[in-house]
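step 3/5: co-fold with magnesium ion
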Amino acid sequence: MAPTLYLVIPCYNEEQVLPVTSKLFLDKIMSLVNAGKIADTSRVCFINDGSRDKTMDIIRSLCSEDEHFAGISLAHNKGHQNALICGLMEVSDKCDMTISMDCDGQDDINAIDGMVDEYIKGAEIVFGVRSDRKTDTWFKRTTAQSYYKFLRFMGVDIIPDHADYRLMSSRALKALAGYSEVNVFLRGIIPQLGFKTAIVYYSRAERMAGSTHYPLKKMLSLAVDGITSFSIKPLRMITTLGMLIAILSFIGIIYIIVGAIIGNTAEGWASTTILLCFLSGIQMVSLGVIGEYIGKIYMETKRRPRYIVDEEINLPEDKE
Ligand code: UDP
Ligand code: MG
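step 4/5: write tokens
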């Protein structure tokens, strides 16, 4: 029997783009159903991430027009990663595989065929990887590339130029469910799951309408999350730096004492002030880095739910 595919598509204030892209998603699903590659029980499942515009009304009307559309609405805006997790977790028992993608048409819909083919050949996870970054600004391209290098240096296993466009089998999703941390950085967790994986290349288009929800501030916070959720190297680096400075200071102290004994007293003010500034700077940064980790621990110990579902439309009961 052909497998059931769910497209998991987070949407936040996307009233401008949803009417355009929803048709494309449905056409793709229907063409795969007609080709006999996936079952007719497949769905295009939108996750409304607490939108404040008409996004949910649009999802509701799509669901009433065609049973291949489904919707999950979150009670609050929880951010892209949590909306994605919600979608993946809520549908994992209803299908054989999911493909997560953005709703703005940036992820080339034709890569879905390749992903499904890889699944049929036996892959449990298929990563959509951008073949180029032509549609990005120079700034985004350069910062993204340096970020991937930095992450690797920090020991985080991440697939360059892969965002959240990927196929996951229900087995891989069950493994993902075991990662119950509140700070989720899917791009880092999923390569850790193991399983047989494959890559499908695609070129990323411009947004079809509306505007991005990832301004520089959110991009930076995702970047910091990526590092601190997977690596304690920054903490170790502080220790190493501390030790280095301690050794240097020790040498400096001996130099000063010897200088004082042989009567060669330093004039001193400038060097003292410089050292003071330098060291307090380093201390502040170090405290900040440690604080970042303590913040993470604080959030994790509270064990708060990652999302709260408000409404589900057109979703069948779980399998089994
Ligand atoms: N998104 C979301 N919650 C948010 C922000 C974004 O569900 O708080 C969704 C958004 O609707 C889109 C996807 O996440 O489907 C990626 O967002 P966007 O296109 O704004 O990011 P970009 O492609 O510019 O990085
Ligand atoms: Mg986008």
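step 5/5: annotate
Strands lie at 5-11, 43-48, 69-74, 97-100, 125-130, 162-169, 197-202, 309-313.
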